[in-house]
Design a protein that fits this description.
The structure is a single chain. This protein is α/β, with parallel strands linked by helices. The radius of gyration is 57 Å and the shape is rod-shaped. It starts with a helix and ends in a 9-residue tail after the last helix.
Length: 916
């Protein structure tokens, strides 16, 4: 049994509930549709069948009237040909009546003749009738009989053909079938036989004698009439027994017609056939007058025609009853099916909604359990199998919470591990690279150049190790969700120039040529500069590594499609290329084309993986095409503007009364609470305060007000503080206004911003360090530098580097000792590590800034921690200080603001007096 249902279970398990309901519904509805369609087709076929029968009655009724006229016309014509002119008036009336009946048949033929295939035959009959009327003069009795017999037979044939073509002959019900049989077959044939009796009997009454041939003919015709009526009456009996409601309506008329025919045959036998052989002037001869015989025979024949006209509406009514019944059954079936289908859809929808609600509640319960909200049991009001899930959820709630707690602990451990590994791995490399550079310089000074190649190899190996560590840490941060995107405005041509200048030595190492195709009008883009540069470095270094004495090209273009503007970077090489199988392995962590490639060219296989993830974080992607032994092309597609989520609108504050003549401070911050606090505090301190809620508004207000000081928030939507700062410093009229940056930072990830003026990452770039010192105008002769570093080797290496450049250096193993050194002799600049025992760099900065005399000492953070891009670009020599919202108490924050504002105003009491 399980094997039987296994395929169905597998199918259902792969479908979602809407798909399941749709599939099951189709399986139920499709057979119903097929059966319903067949039923409706059959019902419609039966309705059309009966409706066509009614068309046959519509055509045959006037045609039978025409048959009656033809039969009368035959008897009258024969009498006139025999020399009895007393029938002339009746013949004229007969022909006039024929013209009216022909019009009635023409009308029926116009309406239904084509559908019944009767038009051609009717046209021939009309022509034959016209010929018959024109041939009345100068023809014999036999000719007259033959012409009328032909016309009569054609009309009878057409009546039968109409019955066949209109389905009358195939009627399925007993009552309508035998009624139809009388209308199509029995009555017309009976009237034909009786009409022939009338014609030959009328001739006998005129001649007063009867030839043996005519007598035989009359006897045969009498027998045919009798047998026809017997068959007709038998059929009527079946019909009346089947449909007893017809008895009261038809029984007397049927009996009257039979009686009239019987009397007619008896009179014919008595007055003509039995006297036909008597001699002239014998009392036994035929004495019946022609006019009397014509009248009595015509009356008997007319009874059959009258019965025909009674039966036609009865037959039509029976057909209509059948049509109405079929239509009602069809309509009821359709209505019932629609109602049932609607009810089924309703129940299906209700069932789906019930399941969906149950699943939604299960989802809510699971989220509540995972979040640790276990203050209640999960209850379902269902009575079906899904209700069992409630018990299961309640049973595993504790396990889920425990699993969540374990996962959180693991995440914390991973974050701590990443921070410690970043510090522990980079610190030794700092010593390796630093000491090798020092030894290299000393070798040059001592003329011992034979050691320089080995030292270069040490430096290269250490830097290669550093790049591997950075790749692994980047990948770990991405997987842990700790990697952020810091969007800034990028000058694309300038960035390309920087990338090219950095990568050219690596390109030329394998004898390659770098071709750059980048239009000068590429303009700007908004993206993460560090990540874009790293992507290009990875792609270009890969292209150079796998290409020897070939061409590496970098193509940059700006494109536009329906989804927006894009910047496309394409790196193409003429190197070893890749097979389709190797292409399939690209962009996977720790994966290269194959093991032989790894052995020959080296590498961890992380560069492309990290590049792809960086691209996806910025809303773009990387694709690759390649052909073995011919080269590869990597295409990076990034949005021209990387989007950032918009913050919720903030409530505006009411302006406070301002002091006339006071120095003006412009507060630019997107948070209404911060603006209000800054305004109240600074007004209280005697400043005139203006506020702006966005970067754009801040620039506009700065041009209008020309303030003495600007406090600027870093983290703002649309246009952040760095973009505003750049705009201020690029405007000649606003560039000299002092700016104090305000930023919201967390204790660990950005705590160093409490007072840091610059940032360096270990291993230290000596040229960058010297540049920073010169930027802060720390004169070698009088400026003492305090190096705060717990690692002895690193501290000694930095000290020796600075002393070699001519600076005076003091050293401290941790933050606590550094504070003691500062209290003894205030340095001109501090180089500070962040991760130290006893008192780390964060705590040192906080303690240093609490002493008013030490707040102006520039601090350069030297750290092995993995810092974000936002931190690296914070100060560009244009910022007077950094404040941390939330790191101090409100009192401390305001004191810090007051100190920096006062210091800046003291430096520049009037904007006009400040020099460039």
């Amino acid at each position: 049994m399980k094997a039987l249902f296994a395929p169905g279970i597998t199918l259902m398990n792969r479908l979602k509930y809407p798909q399941k309901f749709l599939l099951v519904g189709l399986m139920l509805v499709l057979p119903l549709i097929v059966v319903m369609r067949a039923y409706l087709l059959k019902v419609n076929e039966d309705i059309n069948f009966s409706a066509k029968e009614q068309l046959g009655l519509q055509f045959d009724q006037p045609l039978v009237d025409f048959l009656q006229i033809i039969q009368q016309h035959e008897a009258l014509s024969v009498a006139i040909v025999n020399g009895d002119t007393s029938f002339n008036d009746q013949l004229a009336s007969n022909e006039a009546a024929a013209d009216k009946v022909i019009l009635a048949v023409d009308n029926a033929d116009k309406q239904v003749g084509a559908a019944l295939l009767a038009s051609d035959e009717w046209a021939q009959i009309k022509k034959q009738w016209a010929d018959l009327k024109s041939a009345n003069q100068g023809i014999t009795i036999q000719n007259t009989i033959d012409i009328h017999a032909s016309l009569n037979n054609n009309v009878l044939s057409l009546i039968t053909a109409v019955g066949n073509n209109s389905n009358l002959i195939l009627d399925p019900d007993i009552d309508t079938y035998y009624t139809m049989d009388a209308l199509i077959n029995k009555l017309p044939i009976a009237t034909d036989y009786m009409s022939q009796l009338r014609t030959f009997g009328l001739t006998a009454t005129q001649r007063k004698t009867l030839t043996p041939e005519d007598k035989t003919r009359l006897v045969i015709l009498s027998g045919l009439v009798q047998s026809t009526f017997d068959g007709s009456n038998k059929g009527f009996g079946y019909a009346l027994d089947y449909n007893t409601s017809l008895r009261s309506e038809l029984r007397d008329k049927i009996q009257g017609n039979t009686t009239a025919a019987t009397n007619f045959l008896a009179a014919l036998q008595k007055d003509i056939i039995s006297r036909g052989s008597a001699v002239a002037f014998s009392p036994a001869r035929i004495t019946l007058l022609p006019a009397d015989f014509y009248a009595s025979s015509t009356q008997a024949i007319d009874e059959s025609f009258n019965l025909y006209h009674v039966l036609v509406p009865v037959e039509s009514r029976l057909l209509q009853v059948r049509i109405d019944g079929l239509s009602s059954g069809r309509n009821f079936s359709i209505l019932f099916s629609l109602v049932t289908l609607a009810l089924a859809v309703y129940l299906f929808d209700a069932f789906y909604l019930a399941v969906r609600r149950t699943i939604a509640r299960l989802d809510q319960a699971s989220k509540r359990m995972v979040s640790g909200q276990m203050n209640g049991t999960f209850v379902l009001d269902n009575r079906d199998e899904l209700a069992q899930v409630a018990t299961s959820f309640n049973n595993i709630a504790t396990e889920l919470v425990a699993a969540r707690d374990q996962a959180l602990e693991a995440s914390k451990a991973k974050s701590s591990f990443l921070a410690n590994m970043s510090h522990e791995l980079r610190t030794p490399l700092n010593a390796i690279i630093g000491y090798s550079e020092l030894i290299e310089e000393e070798c040059i000074d001592l003329g011992q150049e034979e050691f320089i190649p080995d030292l270069k190899k040490i430096q290269a190996a250490a830097k290669h190790q550093l790049s591997l560590i950075n790749d692994i840490l980047d990948l770990s941060k991405i997987e842990a969700g700790k990697m952020e995107v810091f969007v800034e405005t990028i000058d694309i041509p300038r960035m390309i120039q920087d990338v090219v200048s950095t990568i050219v030595p690596l390109i030329e190492k394998n004898g390659n040529t770098l071709e750059v195709n980048a239009p000068e009008d590429l303009g700007m883009m908004r993206a993460d500069l560090t990540k874009v540069r790293q992507i290009l470095f990875n792609l270009l270094s890969n292209a150079s590594k796998f290409t020897k004495e070939g061409i590496v090209s970098l193509d940059v273009a700006r494109t536009e499609d329906k989804s927006g503007n894009w910047i496309t970077f394409s790196v193409t090489d003429t190197g070893i290329g890749m097979t389709p199988e190797q292409l399939a392995k690209l962009f996977k962590d720790f994966s290269q084309a194959d093991s032989s490639t790894t052995r020959k060219y080296g590498g961890t296989g992380l560069g492309l993986s990290i590049s792809k993830r960086f691209s996806e974080m910025m809303g773009g992607d990387i694709s690759a095409t390649s052909e073995a032994d011919k080269g590869s092309t990597f295409t990076v597609k990034l949005p021209a503007i990387v989007e950032k989520p918009e913050p919720a609108p903030r409530e505006e504050i009411k302006p406070l009364p301002q002091l006339e003549g006071a120095s003006t401070v412009l507060v630019i911050d997107d948070e209404a609470t911060v603006r209000e606090l800054m305004q109240r505090f600074l007004v209280k301190e005697g400043f005139r305060v203006e506020v702006a809620s966005s970067g754009d508004e801040g620039l506009k207000r700065a041009k209008e007000l020309r303030p003495d000081m600007i406090t600027l928030d870093v983290m703002m939507p649309n246009m952040d503080g760095w973009a505003v700062l750049s705009a201020l410093k690029s405007d000649a009229e606003l560039s000299q206004i002092p700016v104090i940056m305000l930023t919201i930072v967390s204790d660990k990830s950005m705590g160093y911003a409490l007072g840091a003026s610059e940032y360096l990452t270990k291993p230290i770039d000596r040229d960058k360090l010297v540049g920073i010192l010169r930027k802060y105008q720390c004169e070698k002769a009088i400026c003492e530098i305090l190096v705060v570093e717990d690692d002895d080797a690193t501290r000694e290496m930095i000290a020796r580097t600075l002393e070699k450049e001519g600076w005076t250096v003091d050293q401290a193993e941790n933050g606590r000792i550094a504070l003691d050194r500062v209290s003894i002799a205030q340095p001109g600049l501090i180089l500070l590590d962040l991760m130290m025992p006893e008192m780390d760099g964060f705590e040192f900065v906080e303690a240093l800034r609490k002493n008013a005399n030490w707040r102006t000492i520039p601090i350069v953070v030297v750290t092995a921690m993995d810092l974000g891009e936002k931190e690296r670009k914070m100060l560009n020599g244009q910022v007077e200080g950094i404040l941390q919202k939330g790191a101090y108490t409100q009192e401390d924050l305001f004191t810090e603001v007051r100190t920096l504002v006062a210091a800046c105003l003291k430096k520049a009491p009037r904007k006009e007096q400040v020099g460039g």
